[in-house]
């Protein structure tokens, strides 16, 4: 497993040095891996100090939550290893005074032992010290007693609540009581799509099949309570939330806060999909979502997956969550609308240019387009593979969307003339396909349709002129030319072959067959071309060896048109 580190034995210290170097409000103890507020006053002026911590590997927890309004100090152990008693005690002495210290501890044996002994030593030294243990992992509800559940991502919200109270000057007993009450109404459950790798180990902590997920795991790479086949995101989200709600027993109408936490290797896209469903599911269950956050809040190194945390709110907790903080990793106000705001763009304006010709070949064009749609749909895996080698891998799904748009357009269109059908297809593809393919196909079809309106007859020469006009439009829009390793390397030979066939007075079916063959040969030739435009151009010689996906797509649909005997255009 590749990681951007120097020495696994120094990675935690170097990480903390980097965090402190980036944030002027933080400081690092020279002797221990303890991050604290740089504005810590003398002991006599200190309010209740809130301290948390645990093993490294959960970033931005815990150092990212040090700052006014949250933690006063965070103690880090090695990766997934509890910090030592001496390190915790050093943190207490560094930030606590007569007002005392509150230790927020996730319910793992090592953390409880080391933080617990440090608290006892601090009390013996005259510093009042209380502990709030967070045990929010509802996945273990049928496995262990409540007091043995793990503490996971819900801990972040506990940090915020007790930190805000301490900042307001409340006494130690009040701060501790509020933390324990909040922890008691918080539930969390996670899902992993893969394992993480501890830097010193170099291998994943467990293995999953290509289609497997792990439910109810902890935050140290340990296995969960169940393994199953991957399911749609909505189904996974529902299972996590339903387990939390069944365990916590929130009554209908209860205000809640939601945390959608990235375990480390999950994209923002996936988190948003999960958050969308989580908000909807909570509301379906009769709960009122007062605040919600999504992001990387308490991770497990690079583990792909997420956890959901739900906390019951009252007015006091809501107010504390809303208090300002200078902690660099806090995710912001978390205010969400009562429902997603989705508005209509309205009816699209009518097309600005009429493209009606005098022929009666609309049905023929629709049949040819439908044949092309079938071929593009079948070629989706091939096009995805080719585009993944030199692009972003979306060509296959784009052409699948093109096929769907063609079918819908042909079903809705009853135009008798070819130009009108081409113009409607241009609009359908423009709206259906993202990226570059949509504009290219739309401009080519529009230009071809306009050219047909200028032709006196609907013969092969007029179609050749329209095809050439469309190819020229694609070249003008994208700035590409032959030899640049683009779709034009199939389109240009096809246009030339069609024009040559028209000059030789071939039948339409023979002419389209020659055009399709020229496109196929042109597409294959791109395998030896160095790309000059598009994403593939960033790869240089590394793109050589496989044909360009866009050129192959052209050869696919042209071949389908040529193969259809009913597509004769005369």
UniProtKB/TrEMBL annotation:
Domain annotation DhaL: ranges: 363-563
SMART domains assigned: Dak2
Organism: Bosea rubneri
Protein name stated in the entry: Dihydroxyacetone kinase family protein
Entry-linked PANTHER family: TRIOKINASE/FMN CYCLASE, TRIOKINASE_FMN CYCLASE
GO molecular function (one): kinase activity
PROSITE patterns recorded: DHAK (PS51481), DHAL (PS51480)
Gene3D superfamilies: 1.25.40.340, Dihydroxyacetone kinase, domain 1, Dihydroxyacetone kinase, domain 2
All copies of domain DhaK, residue ranges: 7-330
Pfam families reported in the protein's UniProt record: Dak1, Dak2
Keyword annotations of the record: ATP-binding, Kinase, Nucleotide-binding, Transferase
């Amino acid at each position: 497993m590749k990681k951007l580190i120097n020495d696994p034995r120094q990675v935690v210290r170097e990480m903390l040095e980097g965090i402190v170097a980036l944030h002027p409000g933080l400081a690092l103890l020279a002797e221990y891996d303890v991050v604290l507020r740089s504005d810590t006053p003398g002991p006599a002026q200190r309010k209740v100090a809130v301290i948390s911590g645990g093993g490294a590997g959960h970033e931005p927890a815990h150092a990212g939550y040090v700052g006014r309004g949250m933690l006063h100090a965070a103690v880090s152990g090695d990766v997934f290893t509890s910090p030592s008693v001496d390190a915790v005690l050093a943190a207490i002495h560094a930030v606590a005074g007569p007002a005392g210290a509150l230790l927020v501890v996730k319910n793992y044996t090592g953390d409880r032992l080391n933080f617990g002994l440090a608290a006892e030593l601090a009390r013996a030294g005259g510093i009042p010290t209380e502990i709030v243990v967070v045990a929010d992992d509802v996945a273990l509800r049928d496995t262990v007693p409540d007091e043995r559940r793990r503490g996971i991502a819900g801990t972040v919200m506990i940090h915020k609540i007790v930190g805000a109270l301490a900042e307001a000057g409340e006494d130690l007993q009040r701060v501790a009581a509020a933390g324990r009450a909040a922890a008691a109404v918080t539930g969390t459950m996670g899902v992993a799509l893969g394992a993480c790798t501890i830097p010193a180990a170099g291998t994943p902590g467990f293995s999953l099949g290509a289609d497997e997920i792990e439910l109810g795991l902890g935050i140290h790479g340990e296995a969960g309570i169940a393994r199953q086949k991957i399911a749609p995101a909505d189904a996974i989200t529902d299972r996590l939330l339903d387990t939390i709600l069944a365990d916590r027993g929130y009554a209908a109408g209860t205000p809640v806060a939601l945390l959608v936490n990235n375990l480390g290797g999950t994209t923002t896209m996936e988190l948003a999909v999960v958050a969308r469903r989580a908000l909807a599911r909570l509301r379906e269950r009769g709960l009122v979502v007062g605040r919600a956050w999504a992001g990387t809040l308490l991770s497990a190194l690079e583990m792909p997956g997420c956890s959901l945390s739900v906390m019951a709110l009252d007015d006091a907790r809501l107010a504390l969550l809303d208090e300002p903080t200078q902690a660099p990793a806090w995710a912001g106000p978390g205010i969400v609308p009562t429902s997603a705001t989705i508005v209509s763009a309205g009816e699209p304006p009518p097309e600005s240019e009429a493209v009606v010709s005098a022929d009666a070949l609309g049905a023929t064009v629709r049949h040819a387009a439908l044949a092309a749609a079938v071929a593009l749909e079948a070629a989706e895996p091939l096009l995805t593979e080719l585009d993944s080698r030199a692009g972003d891998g979306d060509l296959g799904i784009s052409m699948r969307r093109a096929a769907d748009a063609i079918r819908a357009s042909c079903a809705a269109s009853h135009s008798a003339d070819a130009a009108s059908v081409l113009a409607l297809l241009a609009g359908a593809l423009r709206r259906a396909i993202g990226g570059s393919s949509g504009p290219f196909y739309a401009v080519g079809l529009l230009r071809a349709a306009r050219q047909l309106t200028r032709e006196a007859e609907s013969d092969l020469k007029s179609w050749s002129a329209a095809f050439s006009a469309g190819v020229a439009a694609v070249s003008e829009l994208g700035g590409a030319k032959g030899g640049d390793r683009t779709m034009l390397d199939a389109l240009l030979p096809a246009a030339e072959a069609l024009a040559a066939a028209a000059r030789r007075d071939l039948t339409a079916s023979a002419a389209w067959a020659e055009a399709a063959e020229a496109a196929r040969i042109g597409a294959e030739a791109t395998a030896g071309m160095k790309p000059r435009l598009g994403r593939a151009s960033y790869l240089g010689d590394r793109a050589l060896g496989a044909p360009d996906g866009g050129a192959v797509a052209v050869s696919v649909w042209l071949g389908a048109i040529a193969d259809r005997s009913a597509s004769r255009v005369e």
